[in-house]
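Can anyone check this?
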Amino acid sequence: MIARLAWRDLRSGSRHFAPVVGGIALGVAAVVAVGAAADAVRQGAAREARSLLAADVEVRSTRVLSAAAESALREVEIRRGLAETRVTELVAMAASPSTAALIELKAVADDYPFYGAVETTPDAPLRAHLASGPPPYGAVVQEAFLIRMGLAPGDRFTIGRAEFAAVAILRAEPDRAAGAFSLGPRVLVSRRALEAAGLIQPGSRVRYRILLRAPEGTDVEAVRDDLRRALAGEPFDITAYPDAQPALRRSLDRLGTYLGLVGLTALWVGGIGVAGGLRAFLAERWDTIAMLKSVGAGPATILRLYVAETLALAALGGFAGAVLGAVGHGLLARLAAPWLPFHLEAAAGLWPYARGLAMGVLTALLFSLWPLLQVAGQSPAAVFRREVAPARTDRRTAVAVAVVLGLGLWGLAWWQAGNVRVAALFAGSLLAASGILAAAARGVARLARAAPSPRGLAWRRGLANLHRPGSRTTTVMVSLGAGVTVVLAVALVERAVRSELLGHIPRDAPSVFFIDIQPDQRDDFARVMAARSIPAELVPVVRSRLAAIDGRPVGPEGRPGTKPEDRWYFTREYVLTVADRVPRDNAITAGRWWEGAPAAPEVSVEEDAARHLGVTVGSTLAFDIQGARVEARVTSLRSVQWDNRSANFYVIFAPGALEQAPLTYLAAARPAAAVETALLREAAAAFPNVTAIQVHDILASATRVIERLALAVRAVGAVIVLAGGVVLAGALAATRGVRLREAMIFKALGATRRTVARAFAIEFLFLGAAAGAVGAALASVLAWAVLRFLLEIPWRWDPVPCLLAVAATAAGTVLVGVASTHRLLGKRPFPVLRGA
């Protein structure tokens, strides 16, 4: 019987079905699109796992293997039947007759890669492209390299002491994410050509990769473990293909989780539309409900009837959302394609669609609880007397529903994020934001009620509509404000990061850094800079690994209890330097600075690094410098102004401590823009092994990464705004009868159509402006928290995006509101009033 009644009721139709179906559809579309894209990425990563590494196992280091390590590696290779190829990666300078540019150079052997393929134009094996020379040697280059250097395919250029020809254009590498942060265009050469270039000198920054292929059927994780035991104590990272590109995987997982939670916010806003639409739909059925109760239908029967109808509408919206989500998945996949070193399939498994549909149905049920319980709990007499004695809200029922909503949101967030803490933070934040928006809506209604009555009819009616009984001020402000909060917060964070990178560079900050200057080149380099009247301070540096703290060896997991996000401080490569005085923009916060050259080695540590490492003044640090161990006592902690764009260091040694270390020099310079290109060409010709890094290129690359991330988040966040528009349209549809009657009364009394339209527009303007203002305030707080606690970037409130968001929200609300009520204004008053 319930199914038959529900089908008959739904078949009669209602204009309030649209916000129910539309809200769920948009929310499910966001969840499905993100889930399907993340699923496709995981499937692609699993399918192309070996290609992501170009091998079964990789041994990676920043130094050449010692004789003992080579012997241990060879023993495992023979015992396991492994094939080996080697790859060397570094940054270098390429020069042509007209310019010079920083490049990412990759030298490979003939059998690279073991898995996957290097895609080139013209299409040919990589070995064939790199076989030519000398001179010139063959090089496969990215198209961006040719554009930057002003070259055409086949033209010649130099790297170090060797001459190369651009024989092919690089389209894709199997073991590199194409959209990742880059220091310059990619150039692939042979290992023989790299030796001829003479780039690698003592202390040069080089990454050595040994790629290993195991026989079919071999347990590669067992091979990885064998290598870790054989090379224990050596500074190598050993990875098997199931764990390939862990940084890429982590980044994509985190982005997927964040986008998924943004999609869940859209579903939450859609749920508000469900509640509003269902409340309006039930208002149309009050008489039917009263009659059903009068003939014996109990609360459980009424509840089952309308729960069945809600499930049917939610399922319809869920299926529509799944279709939209498939389209959104295709768009996200296209957006993510430049980031991924493998092809992303357009189709995904069924699980993201099933999960999105289930989330949509559960959200609809959660938000239908309150209106359904209100209806089920009313007596027939109370229903019939509703116009003269409105039903009172049961406080205990309200509290119970609020608790169920909170727990339901937490459960959905846990399902989406897979992390209890993240789910709790998300649910708490969203509930707090919703509460603030609801409170602000009540405040707007009270202000409108308390405000002096304007003389104009349009203004008087526009303000009155904000607080009259049955108004949808709270519903509209919560839904629109949530959308503004998410989208604007992303924009504020993006602008703050971009401003930090590009907009606050000190006037005297260097524009070029020269690295890997050898000790015997120091004086000659200084003379070249002096000849052009360019001040350049040469700073000694040496690369190292942290070996021990207070005599206890440091492993990849850090100290016991170290958080995963802090392990980077234990495993990273530290660039050490020597200084006799406190560097510029550094300040001693604990301990003392040395005087002269102490008898025993002393170091000064940056305060944040010291906190993460768990060291204080008096602790000892031991560093592994290319196999030699240097131990020193911490005598001071420093604060560092990192944004001064100068050469800054986490660890500084006292003079005399690193005299025997293989030091190189770093030079920071700020040449005039007119001579910068000529200086780079001269430096590349005179010092082939020296690499020049132009700051603006690095900042441009970082900005591109930020823009792509922000675009993905804004794309999903825009769905929240659309869902808010659907909620607004639904709220207006719910008050259609009241609005129509009021409009016709005013027209019958002589008000023009324009006056009535202005009254509606003023109401929508205040609604949109208030929602935009509160959303902008919440977005500012959210952006401040992200910048302060996650990115550690100074907060500077930017009023321009906030004002634009308020104006856009107000204009959009007026547009949707006028479009939704336009048809009412065209009706003639007396036929409507006579039928009322």
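Reply from J.R.: I decoded it. Residues 88 and 126 are 16 Å apart (CA to CA).
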